[in-house]
Design a protein that fits this description.
By secondary structure, the protein is α+β, with helices and mostly antiparallel strands. The protein is 55% helix and 18% strand. The longest helix is centred in the last third of the chain and has 36 residues, at 573-608. Residues 133-234 form the P-type ATPase A domain. It is a multi-pass membrane protein. Its main location: membrane.
């Protein structure tokens, strides 16, 4: 054995084994309970009645311990009886009148249904556990030219860290040196690695695939996007839907009514219907079993958790069952334009050059001038040139920035002017390229003009282009009967062009944050349930006032914190997926509630007419609970 190998002590081995068994303890206890019931039945059948009771008692204690503990603790804390207590009373009552097998089977099936509920919870919590495992514990800090391994919690904004190929990114940051491919599946769900170079953002939990990179930390470990995802999933699992809250309030009153009716049934049938005391007690015990609302109580929570877990797996983070439930009733949705319907950055859509000039040469020279500016339009022109021109950009002989208008430059004795229409002459612009400027402007383009030695030579059209998936997403929403509205701070002309291109039903232009809130209020007055989709700080008030706020995962921290649902991949079609998931969840909850109430009513009626024996009452009641939970687990599937 190598000296570096770690030898586990017996105590550590036992602890490790216990950790593996712990999630399955309820199922193991239920299985043992079933084994003891089988042994009790065999002993009873072959005339060892006294010995069989020992096995039944073991089945009671092992199978019922978890639920009895849960019921007693909840009763003590809330000062109110619950379903678990009803089941304990029913099982003990069955044993008192000699129905040991039926009482033990009741405990066994109740334990199995409890194990299934725990399985659903564990499956949901598994999303967090798998996320937590992706968070590196250490980082390679570069300080004064030296490398040092430090805990991630010790990293501070501005620190430089080295991330080697194959390592996970320990903190959100910006690449300051190196080029690599990053696997961002943990954040976006996208399987294809993303190529990233200097100035590109990287996120904690993602994987550096190919090259070594030096990253400047931009967020504290507690504020990373990865940490926010974990917090969102945790808050979603702890928040209950309106249906769940109603069932929990209803449960306490219902249990009291059932116990009261059971007590009445001990005596009333004996005096009014002439039943024997044994028959009255027997029927009261069956009533106690079949009237317990176990299936009804299990109708909602497993379905809600399964749906939230499914959504998290597909990049739809829901902060609670209430929001997912509401999403299924959506009637109208308002969407911010910039960064939501569009990419949020201008792109060159068309370049028109005067006859006799070479387009590639002119773009190369214009981009060389614009490369000295940080203006978004200048950056878009430079990016366009890098994609379409093979030559390296150069430094012009002279350069002068004219704020609000454009830029002047000199190249090999030529005087260049690049900027807005008024900067180069409005009349020349109107006549250039047969008046194409007007047509491009109507289509929502921003125009940049190039003048060389006093002559208008080229026009570049730029636009914040609509995302490729936007039309698909809007069309899906329309098919679901949802009214779509675009809210933007842009001019009426630009807004109209983008609205037509993205297929929305309605748009409002020149919106300030407060006017977005006003439009949301008007939509809420007209439609029952309204959602708002946004990504910026200016969208936060509207996200807060909407019935459901939906943030794009790449948006600002404020938007992410204000929203009720986060789309991690910035993928608008996921909204339609989320609505479908919500509708599936609501449908399954409805099925569960109707089925469980129907079974309870049927069993109560059968018992009153003396058509139902205790074994069938136990199987009918507990079987319905298991069916309801299994029906809810269907939501875990995609």
């Amino acid at each position: 054995m190598s000296s570096g190998a770690k030898v586990l002590t017996k105590k550590e081995q036992n602890s490790s084994l216990l950790e593996k068994i712990k999630p399955h303890l309820e199922l193991i206890a239920a299985s043992l309970s079933g084994v003891f019931i089988a042994l009790g039945w065999i002993f009873d059948k072959y005339g060892f009645g006294t010995d069989s009771i020992i096995f039944y008692l073991l089945a009671f204690v092992i199978g019922g311990f978890a639920k009895a503990k849960e019921g007693i603790e909840a009763t003590y804390e809330n000062k109110e009886l619950n379903v678990e207590m009803l089941m304990i009373f029913a099982a003990v009552g069955s044993a008192i009148i000699g129905y040991w097998t039926e009482g033990a089977i009741l405990i066994f099936i109740f334990a199995v249904s409890g194990a299934l509920e725990t399985y659903t919870m564990n499956k949901s919590h598994k999303e967090i556990s798998s996320l937590m495992e992706l968070q590196p514990e250490e980082a390679l800090l570069i300080s004064n030219g030296y490398e040092k391994r430090v805990p991630v919690s010790e990293l501070r904004v501005g620190d430089h860290i080295l991330i080697k190929p194959g390592e996970r990114v320990p903190s959100d940051g910006m690449i300051i040196k190196g080029q690599t491919n990053i696997d961002e599946a943990a954040i976006t769900g996208e399987s294809m690695p993303v190529s990233k170079g200097e100035q590109a953002d990287v996120f904690a939990g993602t994987v550096n695939m190919t090259g070594s990179i030096t990253v400047q930390v931009t967020k504290e470990s507690s504020d990373t996007l990865f940490r926010k995802i974990i917090q969102l999933v945790q808050s979603a699992q702890s928040e209950k839907s309106p249906s769940q809250l109603f069932i929990e309030r209803f449960e306490g009153t219902y249990v009291k009514v059932v116990l009261l009716v059971v007590v009445v049934m001990f005596f009333l049938p004996h005096f009014l219907l002439g039943w024997s005391w044994h028959e009255s007690f027997y029927r009261a015990m069956i009533l106690l079993v079949v009237a317990s609302p176990c299936a009804l109580v299990a109708s909602i929570m497993p379905a809600s958790l399964s749906a939230i877990s499914n959504g998290a797996r597909h990049g739809i983070l829901v902060k609670g069952g209430v929001h997912l439930e509401n999403l299924g009733h959506l009637e109208a949705i308002a969407l911010d334009k910039t960064g939501t319907l569009t990419k949020g950055k201008p792109e060159v859509t068309e370049v028109l050059v005067k006859e006799g000039l070479k387009k590639e040469q002119l773009i190369w020279q214009a981009a060389s001038i614009e490369s000295h500016s940080n203006h978004p339009l200048a950056i878009a022109i430079v990016n366009y040139a890098k994609r379409n021109v093979t030559k390296e950009l150069f430094h012009p002989d002279s350069l002068e920035d004219i704020p609000g208008w454009g830029v002047k430059a000199e190249i090999n004795g030529e005087q260049w002017k690049i900027g807005k229409a008024a900067f180069v002459g409005k009349e020349d612009v109107d006549q250039f390229a047969d008046g194409k400027a007007k047509e491009l402007a109507i289509r929502g383009n921003t125009l940049v003009f190039i003048e060389i030695n006093g002559e208008l030579c080229a026009m570049i059209a730029l636009k914040d282009v609509v995302r490729e998936e936007t039309k698909l997403a809007i069309n899906h929403l329309k098919k679901q009967g949802i009214h779509t509205v675009m809210l933007t701070g842009d001019s009426e002309k630009t807004a109209r062009a983008i609205a037509a291109e993205s297929h929305v039903d309605e748009f409002f232009a020149e919106c300030l944050p407060e006017s977005k809130v006003e439009h949301l209020k008007q939509l809420k007055a007209k439609y029952k349930t309204v959602a708002m989709v946004g990504d910026g700080i200016n969208d936060a008030p509207a996200l807060a006032i909407a019935n459901i706020g939906i943030a794009m995962g790449g948006g600002t921290d404020v938007a992410l914190e204000t929203a009720d649902i986060v789309l991690m991949k910035n993928d608008l079609p996921r909204i339609a997926d989320a609505i479908n998931l919500s509708q599936r969840m609501n449908k399954i909850i409805k099925q569960n509630v109707i089925f469980s109430i129907s079974v309870i009513m049927l069993l109560i009626a059968s018992n009153f007419f003396q058509m139902l024996d205790l074994p069938f009452g136990v199987i009918g009641h507990e079987g319905s609970t298991i069916l309801v939970i299994l029906n809810s687990l269907r939501l875990l599937k995609s």
